[in-house]
Amino acid sequence: MPSAEIASKRQAAREVIDILSEISLLLNTHLDRSTLSLCVSLIENGVNPEALATVIRQLRKEGAKVQQQQREGNVGSP
């Protein structure tokens, strides 16, 4: 593949991520560009978008629980 074609594809990918990042910001998804890029890549490789969204929500809930436990000093307690 010629380098001009590669550069063109990279530029197009950046533009797509720019647009998705703006949409993400408007929708208050709290996904940074890197995470958004990873999500797009996963979806392009066949991951179900709804399943991915569910996993992200679950991870956020678990992360919030861990942070709350750390604030309360309950880390490691049953």
What can you tell me about this protein's structure?
The protein is mainly alpha-helical and 78 residues long. The chain folds into 2 domains: 1-47; 48-78. Helices cover 77% and strands 0% of the residues. The protein is built from 3 helices and no strands. It is elongated and about 55 Å long. The mean pLDDT is 91.
Number of domains: 2
What's the gyration radius in Å? 18 Å
Structural class: mainly alpha
Instruction: Output the helix-strand order.
Output: HHH
Number of helices: 3
As a percent range, the share of helical residues equals over 70%
Count the E strands.
Answer: 0
Q: Estimate the global geometry from the Cα principal axes.
A: elongated
Question: Please, what is the average pLDDT?
Answer: 91
Instruction: Describe the sheet with the most strands.
Output: none
How much of the sequence lies in strands comes to: under 5%
User: Would you identify the regions where 5 or more consecutive residues have pLDDT less than 50?
Assistant: none
Distance between the termini: 57 Å
Protein name: Mitotic-spindle organizing protein 1
Pfam families: MOZART1
Subcellular location: Cytoplasm, Cytoskeleton, Microtubule organizing center, Spindle pole body
Main location: cytoplasm
